[in-house]
Amino acid sequence: MSSLSHAASSAEKRTNARYWIVVMLFIVTSFNYGDRATLSIAGSEMAKDIGLDPVGMGYVFSAFSWAYVIGQIPGGWLLDRFGSKRVYFWSIFIWSVFTLLQGFVDIFSGFGIIVALFTLRFLVGLAESPSFPGNSRIVAAWFPAQERGTAVAIFNSAQYFATVIFAPIMGWLTHEVGWSHVFFFMGGLGIIISFIWLKVIHEPNNHPGVNKKELEYIAEGGALINMDQKDTKAKVPFSVKWGQIKQLLGSRMMIGVYIGQYCINALTYFFITWFPVYLVQARGMSILKAGFVASVPAVCGFIGGVLGGIISDWLMRRTGSLNIARKTPIVLGMLLSMVMVFCNYVNVEWMIIGFMALAFFGKGIGALGWAVMADTAPKEISGLSGGLFNM
After folding, report:
1. Which region holds residue 354: left if phi is over 0, alpha if psi is between -120 and 50, else beta?
2. Which residues cross the membrane (predicted)?
């Protein structure tokens, strides 16, 4: 019987549950970036309605960014302490509730509207802070090194896909039924997605759809399949982590990674916050047209993002060097993204969109920083490492 059992086990086909995990990461990240873009799409009409000037809008935009930065280290610690599935669920649910509430800010008047909007955007930023460190932890747990670049590229490319899908929808909602419905739609959708997350996401060892062959395959490739097991999760208090934070900040390699990610994020936030506003205010487009035009660079960014991961994993298989496989697409992609500077010197609409599309394509190719984090972050503080990286 034992020989028959062994033969059956040998003949068992390896499952691919990890692919469904990255699909869920893609969906959640698409929604995440769609949620971040709500104010950039609805902002022009909202500003007219509530009497907010560009300076005031700048302060409101900054609320999310400040909170997002402040929340990175605590968010990373929460991920390490309580696990990716649980923390990420609450992250999605809470940011969606605060997004929905932004649709009601016009019940206030005068300065109260600005305070309410600033506060809600700040709370959304705090709630979203564990999202990308959580993505990185889940990829590190589920994917071997030779597939990690593509997995990261897939979830990271969701930021471009989000613009393709959500910018036209939010532009249409703003144009047809009013800016408040953008927040109602995205907030309600997020609450639904948070409960789907609970059903789909599991740790590798506890996933009902994974078999022994897949577990062995991903573990042999360097996946940290026990990352969130109760007996292996870090139980130390947050105060003890400061020594590890100093160690990370003292690493020359990690400082280089952090600087590179900052440059990539600067491009990302331009496209998801100010780009639609730029098209409306500087180039005179309607809200509806800007929503559709903004999707063109996003499509190119999506293609570049997926291509960057494929190239990285191909280089990994050909050279066996993570150094070459990760650095090459990052350097080439960021150099290509510099073409957006030429938008300052042209007034032809199609050329502006073309330069922006090419820049976003390059940015997509170079957006492999999370693959580097999944490759190098210490297991016991992977969330914390990701939080520092994402600041």
Report:
1. alpha
2. 17-34, 54-75, 87-105, 150-173, 179-198, 255-280, 292-316, 328-347, 353-373
Q: Which residues of 114-133 are buried (b: 16+ CB within 10 A; e: fewer)?
A: bebbbbbbbbbbbbbbbbbb
The proportion of the chain whose per-residue pLDDT surpasses 90, expressed as a percent, equals 26
* 3 state SS for the chain: CHHHHHHHHHHCCCCCHHHHHHHHHHHHHHHHHHHHCHHHHHHHHHHHHHCCCHHHHHHHHHHHHHHHHHCHHHHHHHHHHHCHHHHHHHHHHHHHHHHHHHHHHHHCCCHHHHHHHHHHHHHHHHHHCCHHHHHHHHHHHHCCHHHHHHHHHHHHCHHHHHHHHHHHHHHHHHHHCCCHHHHHHHHHHHHHHHHHHHHHCCCHHHCCCCCHHHHHHHHHCCCCCCCCCCCCCCCCCHHHHHHHHHHHHCCHHHHHHHHHHHHHHHHHHHHHHHHHHHHHHCCCCCHHHHHHHCHHHHHHHHHHHHHHHHHHHHHHHHHCCHHHHHHHHHHHHHHHHHHHHHHHHCCCHHHHHHHHHHHHHHHHHHCCHHHHHHHHCCHHHHHHHHHHHHC
Task: List domains and CATH numbers for the chain.
Answer: 17-390 (1.20.1250.20)
Q: Which two tokens stand for residue 364?
A: 């997509």
SS3 285: coil
Give me 62's structure tokens.
């900054």
Residues 361-389 have pLDDT tens digits of 998 888 877 777 767 666 666 666 777 67
